[in-house]
Amino acid sequence: MLDARFMTALGTDTGLADQVVREAHEAGDFEGAMNAVRRLHREQTFRIGMHVVTGRTTAEQAGLTYTSLADACMKGLAPAALSEAERMGGAFDGAVAVVALGKAGSREMTAGSDLDLMTVYAAPPEAVSAGRGWSAETFYGRFTQRFIAALSAHTAEGGLYEVDMRLRPTGSKGPVSVRLEALEAYYADEAETWEFMALTRARLVWASDEAFGARVEAALEAALRRPRPGVDIAGDVRAMRDLMDRERRPKGFWDLKLSAGGQVDAEFAAQYRQLTAAQAGAPLTVSTLEALADDPILADAWRTHQQLGQLMACAFDGGGDPDQEPSGFQMRLARTVGAPDFDTLKARLIDLRLRARRAFEAMLPALRDGI
């Protein structure tokens, strides 16, 4: 029999992060912490999925809850990874933070979402670890490697998340963990518009020191708000979408992400809105829907595709084609967005995508040279 809490409304279990942190700490060692977190993650993922499949939650609430679960796992495993780095290299006089980007940053995760992350640190210039004399770059690099392993490795209790660190400054070419001063310099002097687009969804998840976490948050916001004279933000965003249209074609009708008028159009529009808001000194948000508050067609397109995507992510492991599924599933998919049947759902999607693409193109007109 399921626990009575199992089907209670999502988003009401505010003690989940505390529970994960406590059980990870009480596990006693790094591997024990990994297994403890995986057991809780498995239970909670199933719970959220049941709410999605049975229609007990909205796409937005499911996204928030999946993300809260990921946050809890990171808050439980980051201290364990830091302790493991200290065990290997000795204590270190510094601070480190974990920043989420992508759907983890915007709190819009689905079942099977990966984690786009970066770690940021600060330390005195000449600091070395007490045991092996590691530099700050080495010590926090080891922390980050252990943290990635804690999240992505498969143990006897299974896995958690795939982790992608490529959105950090300099990507895979640079250190795996970024010094705060280097991050500030990179966004001031080198970053391109697509990197600022990614930064609109950056969100602090955990910091070893609360004051340092506040410094990181301030640095991220300052990077977005810093004037970029001579940069054509609208042109850059449109050029990037046009490039994707040419080089990353949708895999089929049910490619909710890449289809014209689908999630990427809405998300690029939201990121454009946030970049212009940042330059104007207006309030910022990581939420796609909040960023699209003045763009109802694009907001509707994003919400519809996200609602379908939440159910499809629960139903399919790594891909699937609703056209090939039994009629019962097709009807469930249709009812997810209020359509009376599967054919009507497809017709509505075609119309909504056409209107969303027109709204996107009106916001970001094509460049004259077609690039």
Question: What is this entry, summarized?
Answer:
This protein is an alpha/beta fold and 371 residues long. The protein has helices at 16-26, 30-53, 59-89, 102-105, 136-152, 180-189, 193-199, 210-225, 233-247, 263-280, 288-291, 296-315, 327-336, 342-363; strands spanning 95-101, 115-122, 163-164, 177-179, 203-207.
- What kind of sheet is the major sheet? 5 strands, mixed
Number of helices: 14
* Anisotropy-based shape: globular
**Number of domains in the coordinates?**
2
CATH C-level class of the largest domain is Alpha Beta
- Reported CATH architecture of the largest domain: 2-Layer Sandwich
Q: How many β strands by DSSP? A: 5
Question: Into which percent range does the helicity of residues fall?
Answer: 55-70%
What is the CATH topology classification name of the largest domain?
Beta Polymerase, domain 2
Order of helices and strands: HHHEHEHEEHHEHHHHHHH
Helix/strand-derived category reads alpha/beta
Straight-line N-to-C gap = 59 Å
